[in-house]
Amino acid sequence: MYIVTNTIKVKTPFLERMTQQFLSSHTQSKMTDVPGFLGFEVFYRNVPDEADVSEVVALSRWESESDQLAWTKSDSFQSLHQHRKQAHEGKPKESPVLGNTVSRYYSAE
């Protein structure tokens, strides 16, 4: 098994919206035809000593690294992220995202 986490620092007032975006875009029904996809979970927490900052962790499980990488190059992945990019174009709003870190893990099985 191969696991990818995306840990996103977000302004706390936007925490619920961010978690819902991940949950709605990575539903089992939308990902059911993605080869090698095993599951997806979203976690969140308030960052200690930073009341205005929260973290969202999106964790996806895959049969293999190659399955996950193939998905990131797929039209499905590109359209999902292009849609979000277009949603922010032309709008002078400040991003609720303060930064992110992607981590990749291999199963010890």
Compute the gyration radius: what is it? Answer: 15 Å
Please give the share of residues in helix.
Answer: 25-40%
Question: How many strand units?
Answer: 4
Number of helices: 4
Structural class: alpha+beta
Record keyword descriptors for this entry.
alpha+beta, single chain, 4 strands, 109 residues
Written description of the protein model:
The protein has 109 residues and is of the alpha+beta class. The protein has four helices and four strands, in the order E-H-H-E-E-H-H-E. It has a four-stranded antiparallel β-sheet with strand order 2-3-1-4. The longest helix is centred in the C-terminal third of the chain and has 14 residues, at 75-88. The chain starts with a strand and ends with a strand.
Short description:
The chain is α+β, with helices and mostly antiparallel strands. It has helices spanning 15-25, 28-31, 65-72, 75-88; strands spanning 2-11, 37-46, 53-62, 97-106.
Topology diagram in text:
Blueprint: E1 2-11, H1 15-25, H2 28-31, E2 37-46, E3 53-62, H3 65-72, H4 75-88, E4 97-106
Antiparallel strand pairs: 1-3, 1-4, 2-3
